[in-house]
Each structure stands twice: as structure tokens, then as C-alpha cells.
Amino acid sequence: MHTIEVVLAMLVAVVASGYLVRVLPFSLPLPLVQIGLGAVIAGVFNRGHALEPEVFFLLFLPPLLFLDGWRIPKQGLFRDKGAILELAFGLVVFTVIGAGLLIHWMIPVMPLAVCFALAAIVSPTDPVAVGAIASKAPIPKRLMHILEGESLLNDASGLVCFRFAVAAVMTGTFSLATASLTFLWVAVAGLAVGVAVTLGVSTFQRWLWRRFGEEPGAAMLVNLLIPFAAYLLAEEINASGILAAVAAGISMSYVEMTGRVSGSMRVQRAGVWNMLQFSFNGIMFVLLGEQLPGIVERATTTMNESGHQSAWWLLVYVLVINATLITLRLLWVWLSLRWNLLRARRRGLERGEAPNWRIVVATSVAGVRGAITLAGVLTLPLFLPDGSPFPARDLVIFLAAAVILFSLVGASVALPQLLKGLQLPADSGERKEEDLARRLSSKAALAGVERMRQQMVMNQNTENVQLYNDAASRVSLLYQRHLEKDSDGPDVDPEKVQRMELGYRQLRSAGLNAEREELFRLTRRGVISDEISRRLIRNLDLLESRKRE
């Protein structure tokens, strides 16, 4: 019963956080508010819940990473694959070595392998935290795509390095060749499993639909289970379940492009996933906040382990580690940028201009850590094989949790200041692509309407032919609007076109609202049944949502 109460309290905290962010007089990232509410639940009301890392990884990470992989822009992902891979893998190894050596120098009582484990678990950025911070700062779209891609892939590399470091502590041995082969298997097999699960399930599902018909509820449930299946199957063969979930999401986006899913199901599925994303994201950070009071209580013991008596040394450690992580990230980004510019120059490509220094610094500050770091560090074993306590375990957990908080606070404060007033070149590519898509799709629609009209009027009497022609004309008018807008030529005032478009949307919205209110009134009076009312109102809602896009 206690567990149910805790779950309900966390859900209430997630709901409350959404409103608190809006009513607070100052701007705060949503994860920080949720962490604070989790700390209140655990500290004030004594309703905390012990985090089980294995359950956490299985329950929360697969669907969230699957959804992030599904929705990340694929064009940007593959366009900047070089920069993403450099950050997701190269930077992780660079951080593990650099930060691990510095932590060992700063805290000599902590074994070197343990220092490498701490550096490894704080190296991956969190996609949820990165997205939350980005919503409060005007991050350029291309930079955001790189950060999202990095955060999706570096979880696997960071966790693999973490497991190798922990294994070195437990066994006292480490083999670079074995580690490299294992890492290659973990990455490649994880990606392959994710792609195979998505394609296999989707193919089988389409076969069932063709043979027995489509069942929306079952199809929705299967879609929700895909990330869990990919994760569990990958973990069963000692591959990366995280990369499998990400690969499954990326593959799902290509499956969706086949267009074999109905529009109504896509709308329903989007609503379900949006709700799950908000709930799971919130619960992750509320859980993180619930762990803080217990971690802080062990701070005194932690200080004795480090060889210092003053608690202020903990703050020194945290500040130095965070500064080191930002510095290493900044150095890696700068070196990577210089190397890419040099390579482009040697290939005879356009030299171009180096990005603004504020963009480079923002990329370094935007490396936000999150719940994945805490869940990973809590998997540290309690004892070594000989029965002795795991060295500096509480200290490692405290430092990892503190790094999460400082990175969130630092990014939420620094990013808006760094990017404030930054003049970015206007990117008209998206607008041109949208106009092209609307124009070509409208032409295809007109052609499709004409083909269907010819089929319908074939071998029909005069009255039916006239009816079908009138219907085709009415439908064609809906698509002619886009073509007329694009064919007005360069002499048309863009502001006039924009005002006309705004007027159309407002008038159309007014008509939809009036139509919907009338349906509600008829239902209340008993003129039409609830079933008919729900069906008609749902059609209006779908139309309204399409008009708002």
C-alpha cells in the first residue's frame, strides 16, 4: 500500500510541477522543480521511495529513448553524424580519462578505477534534461539536433565505460583489447537488435491487419511494447539495451513513412505518447529528488572517507569536477571544430566562417546530466568479492548527484545569457521546404481527385455525373488555395498574404467552435445521441488540430 501511495504522490508532484513552472515569478527548468518536489516528498512528508536501478532502467528509459529516437529529425541526425559521433563516443573516452585522473589527484584515497567509474557515469548527457533546458533557451536548431543526437548515443558509451571501471575494481584487472571488443559488440548488436525488433514487429502487424483487420487498441499496445522488447532482448545477449531502444525508435520513424497507419491512429498514438513522455520524464526527476535527502544525510560519513573533516570540501570537489567537465567538453568541441574546418579546407570545400564563440561555449555548458547518471551510479555494488565495502561508494554517489544538480542549475542560468541577443543567420530552408511540400502535395491531391472523379462518372447517368462533378469541384477548391497562394508571384505583399492566412485561420476556428458548441447543445437537449455527438466532435477536433499545425 505504501508503494501505491508513493506512486500517486509522484504523479501529483508531476502534475503540480507543470503548473508551478507557469506561476513562478522567475523562470526555472521543469526538471529542477520536479527534483525539488521529490525532495519535499522524501524529506518533509517522509514518503520517499528507494530507487531500484534495474527497475528504473527497464521501466522508464526504453520508452523515453524510443520516443526521442522516433522524433529526432533524421536529416539533421545524419547530416551532422560526424559531430554527433565525436561527442557521443570520443568525448566520453576523453572525459573518462581526463576527469578520472584529476579526481584521483584531488581525492587520493579514492582508487583510480573508482575515479574512472565516477568520470564515466557523469560523462553522458541526459536527453530529457537537455530538452527541458532547451525549452527555456533559444538554442539554434542545428545545435539542438547535435545535442539531442549526442545525448541519445553517449548513454551507451558512458555506461559501458562505467561497467568496465567497476569490473576493474571488483577483479583488479583490465584488458584494453577485451574492453574494445566488448564495446564493439555492445554497440553493434544493440543497434541491430533495435532495428530488427521494430521491422519484425511492424511487418508481422501489417500482415495481421491485411488478414484480420486493424484493431486500434491492440496496435497501440504493441507500439508501446516495442521499446521494452528491444531493450530486454538486447540485454539478454549482453548488448546495449539503451542503444537498442534508440535504434528501435529511429527505425519506427521510417516504418511510419510507409503511410500504412491510418490518420486517426496516428493522432491517438501521439496523444498517448505525449502523456507518457510527460509522466515518465517527471517521475524520473521526482525520483531523483527523493534520493537527495538520504544522500545528503551520508555526507558526513562521506567526508571522513575523503580524509577531510570540513563539509565545505564537498562543495570544492563538486565545483572542481563540474568545472573540469565543462573545460574538457569545451576543449574537445574546439579541437573538433578546428579539425573539421581544416579537413574541409584540404578537400577544397568552402571554408566558411567559424561559429560564434558563444555557440561553442553554449555547446559546452549544455552538457546537462540527469537521472541516467544517478540510476547508473546507484548500481555500484555494496561489497567487493572479498567481503570488504566498495571503496568510497557513498562519496561517488554524492558527487554524481551533485554534478547533476550543478549542471542543471548552471545550464539554466548560463545558456539564456550566452545566447541572449545572438544574431543567427535566418534559415529560410524550412519555409521553402514547407512551401514546396504544400505545393506538390496539393498538385498530387488534385490529380488524385480527378482520377477518382473519372472513375465515379464512368457508366453513370447524367444526374449522377453532375453530382460527382460538383463534389469534385468542392474538394478541389480546398487544394487550389495553396496553389494560388504560391503562384501569386513576387509582387504580392508577404504581409498581406500573412494577414489573409491569419484571417482564414481565425474565421475557420470560429466556424469550428460554433459547430462544436451546437453539437454539445443538441446532445444536452437529447436531439442527437452521445455516440453520434462524440464521433462528429472528434472529426472537428482532428480538423482543428490539423489547422493549427
Layout of SSEs?
Layout: H1 2-23, H2 30-43, H3 53-59, H4 61-71, H5 74-79, H6 81-106, H7 112-121, H8 127-134, H9 141-171, H10 176-212, H11 216-236, H12 241-256, H13 263-297, H14 299-306, H15 312-346, H16 357-365, H17 371-377, H18 393-419, H19 429-457, H20 462-486, H21 494-524, H22 530-548
Helix pairs in contact: 1-2, 1-13, 2-13, 4-11, 4-12, 6-7, 6-9, 6-15, 7-9, 7-18, 8-9, 9-10, 9-12, 10-11, 10-12, 11-12, 13-18, 15-16, 15-18, 16-18, 17-18, 19-20, 21-22
In short:
By secondary structure, the protein is mainly α. It has 22 helices and no strands.
Mean pLDDT: 79
Number of spatially distinct domains: 2
Query: What is the CA-CA span between the terminal residues?
Result: 44 Å
Low-confidence stretches: none
Pfam family, one: Na_H_Exchanger
Subcellular location: Cell inner membrane; Cell membrane
Family: Belongs to the monovalent cation:proton antiporter 1 (CPA1) transporter (TC 2.A.36) family.
Transmembrane segments: 6-24, 31-49, 55-72, 84-105, 111-135, 156-177, 183-204, 216-234, 240-259, 271-292, 312-335, 356-383, 395-415
